[in-house]
């Protein structure tokens, strides 16, 4: 993590007001949460729903040795060093950006409508076979999370894998400018956040902002099946970027699968490179093969042999709530994919789930897909049309939008096989009466639906 003198910190954040007697005070690490401050931290009081300045005293009690402070904000502390700044969030981002410049690491930046976290986990697992790696924890991919992740990087690390999330134009550009990646990945373009951005084309343009911070002669890896990502423009030529593509189509991609086999708990696949072995992953979902292709491309760029890349993929452990297979009570199997949902990710999850065999009943629990704009009802209806009554035994939906999934599916299912709820407790009550030993349940919905509550009851 960052370990610098306060005089250097002040310079990195364009701050002022540090007393000369405190210039050589060292800080180790940064926190924006007074509850998690560690000894030696610099505390940065962010103003969000609450004013972080109100928690500086608690941060000091928990070990903070210095703080930033918004100019003109009243009552700065007098018992620890203070650096005054114009905007504490901008200061956090500037500190991370300047720290990144001082690090001799390679940074891999990852964005996309779906698959960011899974691809991050795969890239990290591959890179760890050969290098010392630091990666984004959980889902800390925002204007706060990414700079905090950068500031946690050790000067002994070789590789940093950063996930970049967004909901508006300009956000990926800002994160990319902080991260200054050597390699950038766009996993795919979907319709998540279309309510904010207006069109899939604008979503693609927002994701392409990752090129802004990509270093000269860096590598841009993207989904070659997506026409919206094939806009090779001046940003590519000016930076002399190397481009690599992955996807399903053999005619338009540098990396594509030649064979995919899926079992109940793992997958095997081959790709179009002569030096590649058979890849095995202890996860399911055809869509994860394409995430793996992006990760394999990174491994090749880092000079890792294909056999070593295969070993890294086989050992990958996905972040929780991403097609996470867990055992519940009395032999029940649960696939927890409740972190988030979009039309693409729900379709892929259902496709995977429908192909699973060896279970007594297969039960779908789906929640609303949020932030889909004016076509949100249509997107939910389309999901309902994709659920096969020959491959799914029961469907439970939760939310005002997902009732349209149920209404469409009900056209094809027998009575008492489809249930729609706007009360989560009522859903859980019926679900727990329905599930039996040797059943399997897939749980998926947008973050705001908090369907992990259903998973926790089934455990």
TrEMBL record:
Q: Which reaction does it catalyse?
A: D-alanyl-D-alanine + UDP-N-acetyl-alpha-D-muramoyl-L-alanyl-gamma-D-glutamyl-meso-2,6-diaminopimelate + ATP = UDP-N-acetyl-alpha-D-muramoyl-L-alanyl-gamma-D-glutamyl-meso-2,6-diaminopimeloyl-D-alanyl-D-alanine + ADP + phosphate + H(+)
Claim: ATP-binding is one of the keywords in the record: yes
Q: Which residues are involved in binding ATP?
A: 112-118
Pathway connected to this protein:
Cell wall biogenesis; peptidoglycan biosynthesis
Molecular function as annotated in GO: UDP-N-acetylmuramoyl-tripeptide-D-alanyl-D-alanine ligase activity
- Give yes or no: UniProt keyword Cell cycle: yes
Q: Which UniProt keywords apply?
A: ATP-binding, Cell cycle, Cell division, Cell shape, Cell wall biogenesis/degradation, Cytoplasm, Ligase, Nucleotide-binding, Peptidoglycan synthesis
What subcellular locations does the record give?
Cytoplasm
Predominant location category: cytoplasm
Query: Which ranges carry the Mur ligase C-terminal domain?
Result: 321-447
What InterPro entries would the database entry show?
Answer: Mur-like_cat_sf (IPR036565), Mur_ligase_C (IPR004101), Mur_ligase_C_dom_sf (IPR036615), Mur_ligase_cen (IPR013221), MurCDEF_CellWall_CoF430Synth (IPR051046), MurE/MurF_N (IPR035911), UDP-N-AcMur_synth (IPR005863)
Q: Where is the Mur ligase central domain?
A: 110-298
Might you give the EC number(s) for this enzyme? Answer: 6.3.2.10
Gene3D superfamilies, A to Z? Mur ligase, C-terminal domain (3.90.190.20), Mur-like, catalytic domain (3.40.1190.10), MurE/MurF, N-terminal domain (3.40.1390.10)
Transmembrane regions: none
Per UniProt, what is one Pfam family of this protein? Mur_ligase_C
Function comment: Involved in cell wall formation. Catalyzes the final step in the synthesis of UDP-N-acetylmuramoyl-pentapeptide, the precursor of murein.
HAMAP family xref list: MurF (MF_02019)
Similarity annotation: Belongs to the MurCDEF family. MurF subfamily.
- What name goes with this protein? UDP-N-acetylmuramoyl-tripeptide--D-alanyl-D-alanine ligase
- Organism, scientific name: Ornithinibacillus salinisoli
């Amino acid at each position: 993590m960052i370990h610098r003198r306060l005089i250097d910190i002040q310079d990195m954040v364009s701050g002022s007001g540090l007393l000369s007697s405190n210039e050589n005070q060292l800080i180790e690490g940064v926190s924006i949460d007074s509850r998690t401050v560690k000894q030696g931290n610099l505390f940065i009081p962010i103003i969000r729903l609450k004013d972080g300045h109100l928690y500086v005293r608690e941060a000091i009690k928990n070990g903070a040795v210095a703080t930033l402070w918004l100019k003109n904000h009243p009552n700065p502390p007098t018992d620890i060093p203070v650096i005054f700044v114009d905007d504490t969030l901008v200061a956090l981002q500037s500190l991370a950006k300047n720290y990144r410049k001082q690090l001799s690491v390679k940074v891999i930046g990852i964005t996309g409508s779906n698959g960011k976290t899974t691809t991050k986990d795969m890239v990290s697992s591959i890179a760890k076979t050969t290098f010392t790696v630091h990666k984004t924890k959980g889902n800390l991919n925002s204007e706060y999370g990414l700079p905090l992740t950068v500031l946690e990087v050790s000067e002994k690390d070789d590789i940093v894998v950063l996930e970049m999330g967004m909901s508006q134009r300009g956000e990926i550009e800002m994160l990319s400018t902080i991260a200054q990646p050597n390699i950038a990945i766009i996993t795919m373009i979907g319709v998540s956040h279309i309510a904010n951005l207006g069109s899939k084309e604008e979503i693609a343009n927002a994701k392409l902002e990752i090129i802004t911070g990509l270093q000269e002669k860096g590598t841009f890896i993207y989904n070659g099946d997506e026409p919206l990502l094939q806009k090779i423009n001046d940003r590519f030529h000016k930076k002399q970027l190397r481009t690599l593509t992955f996807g399903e189509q053999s005619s338009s991609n540098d990396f594509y699968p030649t064979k995919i086999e899926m079992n109940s708990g793992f997958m095997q696949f081959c790709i179009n490179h002569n030096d590649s072995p058979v890849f095995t992953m202890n996860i399911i979902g055809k869509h994860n093969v394409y995430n793996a292709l992006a990760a394999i491309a990174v491994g090749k760029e880092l000079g890792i042999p294909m056999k070593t890349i295969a070993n890294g993929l086989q050992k990958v452990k996905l972040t929780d709530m991403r097609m996470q297979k867990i055992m519940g009570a009395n032999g029940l199997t649960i696939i927890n994919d409740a972190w988030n949902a979009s039309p693409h990710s729900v379709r892929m999850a259902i496709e995977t789930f429908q192909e699973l065999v060896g279970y007594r009943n297969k039960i779908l629990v789906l929640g609303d897909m949020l932030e889909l704009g004016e076509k949100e009802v249509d997107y939910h209806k389309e999901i309902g049309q994709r659920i096969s009554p020959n491959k799914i035994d029961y469907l439970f939906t939760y939310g005002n939008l997902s009732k349209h999934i149920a209404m469409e599916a009900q056209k094809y299912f027998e009575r008492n096989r489809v249930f729609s709820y706007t009360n989560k407790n009522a859903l859980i009550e019926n679900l727990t009466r329905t599930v039996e030993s040797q059943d399997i349940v897939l749980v998926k919905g947008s973050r705001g639906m908090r369907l992990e509550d259903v998973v926790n009851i089934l455990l």
